What we know:
By secondary structure, the protein is mainly α. The chain has six helices and two strands. The chain has a domain at 127-173. The protein has helices at 30-48, 65-103, 110-114, 128-140, 146-152, 159-179, and strands spanning 3-8, 11-16. The radius of gyration is 32 Å and the shape is elongated. β1 (3-8) and β2 form a beta hairpin. The chain has a two-stranded antiparallel sheet.
Amino acid sequence: xxxxxxxxxxxxxxxxxxxxxxxxxxxxxxxxxxxxxxxxxxxxxxxxxxxxxxxxxxxxxxxxxxxxxxxxxxxxxxxxxxxxxxxxxxxxxxxxxxxxxxxxxxxxxxxxxxxxxxxxxxxxxxxxxxxxxxxxxxxxxxxxxxxxxxxxxxxxxxxxxxxxxxxxxxxxxxxxxxxx
Length: 180
């Protein structure tokens, strides 16, 4: 029995006399790659609780606001859990920052410290025009206060600051009317 030795860079192979060597692998054409890609993408969407409509993977024509909210409900629940953990971590940091500032002579009253807030806003598609129309209808019926309208408005991030601005505008309008 004679042995034939072939050397390959990085490795070696030993074949018997008269034997052959074949490297067998699965052929991967574009259709099988596309199937694997779609399966992986759908798995990632499932894990992240992201509706496929947000990635243009399904047709969303004729979807109502309620349907969109239902599609994003699981993602919102997951975001709520994440928000809770992030909020707790930030509040711990705020406590440490407050203590460090006290060492430097900068002291906040409890009222000032408690006014510090964190706002999380989820990027969920919504029909802002419909929301504004509903808020306007409720306000016209006197079924909701200005402060509640502002807190539910998609365009208002700081309700207290907006209320102050409205008061300032009201006093400016009153002063203008007095001069006439």
